[in-house]
Amino acid sequence: MPEPLFTADEQKKFDAGIAELLSHYPSDRKSAAMLPALRLLQSIKTWLPPEGMQLVAKHLESTVEAAYEVATFYVMFHTKKPGRYVVDVCTNLACSLRGAEGMLRYLEERLHTTAGENGEKYFLRETECLASCGTAPCLQINEDHYENLDKAKVDALIAEKLK
Q: Which string of DSSP letters, residue by residue, matches 18-63?
Protein backbone atom coordinates (compact mmCIF):
# COMPACT_ATOMS: atom_id res chain seq x y z
CA MET A 1 0.00 0.00 0.00
CA PRO A 2 1.45 3.42 -0.93
CA GLU A 3 2.48 5.82 1.78
CA PRO A 4 -0.13 8.56 2.41
CA LEU A 5 0.66 12.01 1.05
CA PHE A 6 0.11 13.77 4.39
CA THR A 7 0.50 13.00 8.05
CA ALA A 8 -2.66 13.67 10.09
CA ASP A 9 -1.35 17.12 11.10
CA GLU A 10 -0.34 17.97 7.54
CA GLN A 11 -3.77 16.88 6.29
CA LYS A 12 -5.48 19.22 8.78
CA LYS A 13 -3.21 22.08 7.73
CA PHE A 14 -3.88 21.42 4.03
CA ASP A 15 -7.65 21.10 4.46
CA ALA A 16 -7.84 24.30 6.53
CA GLY A 17 -5.57 26.14 4.11
CA ILE A 18 -7.52 25.10 1.01
CA ALA A 19 -10.82 26.03 2.67
CA GLU A 20 -9.41 29.46 3.58
CA LEU A 21 -8.04 30.02 0.07
CA LEU A 22 -11.25 28.98 -1.65
CA SER A 23 -13.28 31.32 0.55
CA HIS A 24 -11.64 34.22 -1.34
CA TYR A 25 -12.68 33.03 -4.81
CA PRO A 26 -16.06 32.71 -6.52
CA SER A 27 -17.26 29.09 -6.59
CA ASP A 28 -17.15 29.06 -10.39
CA ARG A 29 -13.53 30.35 -10.43
CA LYS A 30 -11.80 27.97 -8.02
CA SER A 31 -8.97 27.35 -10.48
CA ALA A 32 -7.88 30.97 -9.99
CA ALA A 33 -6.47 29.84 -6.63
CA MET A 34 -3.84 27.64 -8.33
CA LEU A 35 -0.78 29.69 -7.31
CA PRO A 36 -1.67 30.00 -3.62
CA ALA A 37 -2.88 26.38 -3.48
CA LEU A 38 0.42 25.10 -4.89
CA ARG A 39 2.29 27.36 -2.50
CA LEU A 40 0.28 25.88 0.38
CA LEU A 41 1.14 22.35 -0.74
CA GLN A 42 4.82 23.21 -1.04
CA SER A 43 4.86 24.92 2.36
CA ILE A 44 3.67 21.64 3.86
CA LYS A 45 5.73 19.13 1.83
CA THR A 46 8.74 21.33 0.75
CA TRP A 47 7.98 20.35 -2.84
CA LEU A 48 5.06 19.48 -5.13
CA PRO A 49 4.64 15.70 -5.23
CA PRO A 50 2.53 14.47 -8.19
CA GLU A 51 -0.21 13.14 -5.90
CA GLY A 52 -0.28 16.53 -4.18
CA MET A 53 -0.78 18.33 -7.48
CA GLN A 54 -3.60 15.88 -8.26
CA LEU A 55 -5.21 16.77 -4.95
CA VAL A 56 -4.85 20.51 -5.59
CA ALA A 57 -6.38 20.10 -9.07
CA LYS A 58 -9.29 18.14 -7.60
CA HIS A 59 -10.00 20.80 -4.94
CA LEU A 60 -9.82 23.57 -7.54
CA GLU A 61 -11.97 21.66 -10.03
CA SER A 62 -9.13 21.93 -12.50
CA THR A 63 -6.83 19.51 -14.28
CA VAL A 64 -3.54 18.01 -13.21
CA GLU A 65 -2.07 19.41 -16.43
CA ALA A 66 -3.03 22.94 -15.36
CA ALA A 67 -1.33 22.39 -12.01
CA TYR A 68 1.82 21.11 -13.76
CA GLU A 69 1.80 24.07 -16.15
CA VAL A 70 1.83 26.52 -13.26
CA ALA A 71 4.30 24.48 -11.19
CA THR A 72 6.81 24.21 -14.03
CA PHE A 73 6.49 27.84 -15.12
CA TYR A 74 7.59 29.40 -11.83
CA VAL A 75 11.09 28.77 -10.45
CA MET A 76 9.75 29.09 -6.89
CA PHE A 77 7.98 25.74 -7.22
CA HIS A 78 9.83 22.44 -6.90
CA THR A 79 8.48 19.49 -8.85
CA LYS A 80 11.32 17.35 -7.51
CA LYS A 81 12.19 17.16 -3.85
CA PRO A 82 14.94 19.75 -3.32
CA GLY A 83 17.94 19.53 -1.08
CA ARG A 84 17.56 20.79 2.46
CA TYR A 85 18.77 24.21 1.34
CA VAL A 86 17.70 25.83 -1.93
CA VAL A 87 20.30 28.46 -2.79
CA ASP A 88 19.29 30.78 -5.63
CA VAL A 89 21.97 33.07 -7.01
CA CYS A 90 20.80 35.95 -9.20
CA THR A 91 22.87 36.26 -12.36
CA ASN A 92 20.79 38.91 -14.10
CA LEU A 93 22.61 41.92 -15.57
CA ALA A 94 22.97 44.05 -12.42
CA CYS A 95 24.19 41.11 -10.34
CA SER A 96 26.48 39.92 -13.13
CA LEU A 97 28.11 43.32 -13.36
CA ARG A 98 28.80 43.11 -9.63
CA GLY A 99 30.33 39.62 -9.68
CA ALA A 100 27.45 37.15 -9.45
CA GLU A 101 29.05 34.54 -11.72
CA GLY A 102 32.17 34.52 -9.56
CA MET A 103 30.00 34.22 -6.46
CA LEU A 104 28.15 31.27 -8.04
CA ARG A 105 31.47 29.50 -8.81
CA TYR A 106 32.67 30.26 -5.27
CA LEU A 107 29.51 28.69 -3.84
CA GLU A 108 30.00 25.63 -6.04
CA GLU A 109 33.49 25.21 -4.58
CA ARG A 110 32.45 25.87 -0.98
CA LEU A 111 29.33 23.68 -1.09
CA HIS A 112 30.97 20.94 -3.19
CA THR A 113 28.16 20.95 -5.72
CA THR A 114 27.39 22.20 -9.22
CA ALA A 115 24.72 24.75 -10.03
CA GLY A 116 21.64 22.95 -11.30
CA GLU A 117 22.37 19.69 -9.45
CA ASN A 118 19.86 18.83 -6.79
CA GLY A 119 21.71 17.12 -3.96
CA GLU A 120 20.47 15.83 -0.63
CA LYS A 121 21.75 18.87 1.26
CA TYR A 122 21.99 21.65 -1.36
CA PHE A 123 20.14 22.67 -4.47
CA LEU A 124 22.27 25.49 -5.89
CA ARG A 125 20.60 27.30 -8.78
CA GLU A 126 21.34 30.18 -11.09
CA THR A 127 18.27 32.41 -11.06
CA GLU A 128 17.33 35.09 -13.54
CA CYS A 129 16.28 37.85 -11.13
CA LEU A 130 15.67 38.30 -7.41
CA ALA A 131 14.62 41.96 -7.72
CA SER A 132 17.59 43.51 -5.92
CA CYS A 133 19.32 45.33 -8.76
CA GLY A 134 20.29 48.23 -6.52
CA THR A 135 21.84 45.94 -3.91
CA ALA A 136 23.54 43.41 -6.16
CA PRO A 137 24.84 40.79 -6.00
CA CYS A 138 22.21 38.86 -4.10
CA LEU A 139 21.06 35.37 -3.34
CA GLN A 140 18.28 33.57 -1.56
CA ILE A 141 18.56 30.65 0.83
CA ASN A 142 15.21 28.91 0.88
CA GLU A 143 13.05 32.05 1.15
CA ASP A 144 15.50 34.31 2.99
CA HIS A 145 17.04 37.07 0.88
CA TYR A 146 20.62 38.42 1.17
CA GLU A 147 22.10 41.43 -0.63
CA ASN A 148 25.35 43.37 -1.17
CA LEU A 149 27.33 40.14 -1.04
CA ASP A 150 31.05 39.52 -1.22
CA LYS A 151 33.15 36.46 -0.34
CA ALA A 152 33.31 37.32 3.36
CA LYS A 153 29.51 37.70 3.56
CA VAL A 154 29.01 34.47 1.61
CA ASP A 155 31.37 32.67 4.01
CA ALA A 156 29.39 34.05 6.96
CA LEU A 157 26.12 32.87 5.40
CA ILE A 158 27.56 29.40 4.82
CA ALA A 159 28.71 29.19 8.42
CA GLU A 160 25.47 30.53 9.86
CA LYS A 161 22.69 29.36 7.53
CA LEU A 162 23.95 26.29 5.66
CA LYS A 163 24.92 23.98 8.51
A: HHHHHTTS-GGGGGGGHHHHHHHHHHHHSS--HHHHHHHHHHTT--
